[in-house]
Amino acid sequence: MDAISDEALLGLTVLHSVSFSPASGDIIEGLNVLDNLFGKIIYGKLPNGDHWLDHLAILGAIRINSFGKLKPIYEFYSESLDGYVCTGINKESEDYQKALKMLSNIKIPNSILVDNVLNPGYVRMEIPQKESIDSMKRIFHPNVTIPLSETDKTTLKEIFSMYNNDSNLIQNVKQRFVEEWNKRESLRKLNEWWNDIPNSITITEVGKVLAHANAQRCDNSLPPLN
Fold first, then answer.
1. d(CA 144, CA 138)
2. Which of 11, 123, 153, 168 could lock onto 47 through a cystine, CB 3.0 to 4.6 A?
3. How many CB atoms are located within 10 Å of the residue 40 CB?
4. Residues in Cβ contact with 145 at an 8 Å cutoff, skipping those fewer than 6 apart
5. Would you tell me how many other CB atoms lie within 10 Å of the CB of residue 223?
6. Cα(179)–Cα(28) distance, integer angstroms
7. Burial class of residue 201, CB neighbours in 10 A (0-12, 13-18, 19+)
8. Measured between alpha carbons, how far is 18 from 36 in angstroms, rounded to an integer?
């Protein structure tokens, strides 16, 4: 393989790093984690135009789709962080009381339901995405945990499905998410750069290896590539 240019490697690394999700269920903390991550990964001037994309394509690090653009960054994260960008359950509703009873039945503390900072008056489960439920554990002691049972998981997913689905409320939550996002310099910079990428892109396995190695060089706390 020919040598990859510095700007192309930076662009590839940022593209790849968008696949990382924060582990925290706290919205503000999770966005701060992402902001800190991209603050480390965006270590130089981000490339513009399409020459760097052509360079990556020639190296076999990406495939370019000439028909279409990347999904807007807010939309991408709204979908991948559906535990953050959600309405939740109205604290004055019958569904809230029902959710509390369901948690009691499986002996999971009510504290899993937290105030939704993006939707005042509502609560949400303190998870970054719905799929987090499948890997959740019960904590018995600081060093003793066990996976949730299938009944536990089913119950939590049912509570997740009880979130309000009013379209106007959902749009308000998404707008507040954008406002929180734009308070953070690195995330704002990521959005501006992402929107200027002219084509839809798929990162190849070769590209993922290159990008992940560089991301780990920037932040050695990142886990190995799966």
1. 8
2. 11
3. 16
4. 137, 138, 139
5. 8
6. 12
7. buried
8. 13
In one letter, which amino acid is 109?
Answer: P
CB of 119 closer than 8 Å to CB of 84: no
Chain segment 112-156, per-residue pLDDT in tens: 999 999 999 999 999 999 999 999 988 776 778 889 999 999 999
Nearest to 134 by CA among 150, 123, 146: 150
Which tokens go with 131? 């799929």
Q: Distance between alpha carbon 115 and the CA centroid of its chain, in Å?
A: 19
- Compute the distance between CA of residue 151 and CA of residue 167 in angstroms, rounded to an integer: 30
pLDDT per position as a tens digit, 166-182: 999 999 999 999 999 99
Joined tokens for residue 20 = 């990382």
Least Cα distance to 89 among 27, 24, 161, 153 occurs for 161
* Residues forming beta bridges with residue 114, ordered by sequence position: 124
Residue 195: both structure tokens together: 């929107």
Distance between CA atoms of residues 161 and 144, nearest Å: 30
